[in-house]
C-alpha cells in the first residue's frame, strides 16, 4: 500500500457566469477570452496598425477633393497618426512585431504626406480653388497658361508680401 493519505474526490465543477453573462466552463484556454476587440491583448497592436494604414489611405485619397473632403482627409490623417502611435506603444506585447512596425511606418509616411499636402491645400484654399475654377472654364492652352500664371502670382503675393 502507498503511504500517501487518500483524499475524497472533488465535487464536479459547475460553470460560472462570466462578466458578459456567458457560461465559463473553467477551461483555462477560453476563460476570460470570449471574443470581442479585447479578446487577445497581443492582437490589439496589429489591429491598430491596420486601422492606421486604412486611415492613412483614406487621408491620402480625401485630401485632393473639395473643401469638406480635404478637411476630412486632414482629420483622417491625424487619426492615422494616433492609431500608429497606439500600435507602436503596444508593440512589446505583440506577436508579429515586424509586420506591425512596417505597417505603422508606412502609415506614418502616407499620413504625414497627406497631412502636409492637405494642410498646404487648406492654407492656400482661395488661390487653389480660383485656379481650379479658372482651368475648368478655360478652353485653350493659352487660357490654362494664364490661369497658371495668375495662380503663381497669387501664391508669390501670399508667400512673399511686398515682392510682387
From TrEMBL:
Keyword terms, alphabetized: Membrane, Transmembrane, Transmembrane helix
Amino acid composition bias (Pro residues), ranges on this chain: 1-18
Spans annotated as Disordered: 1-41
Parts of the chain that traverse the membrane: 68-91, 98-120
Name of this protein: Uncharacterized protein
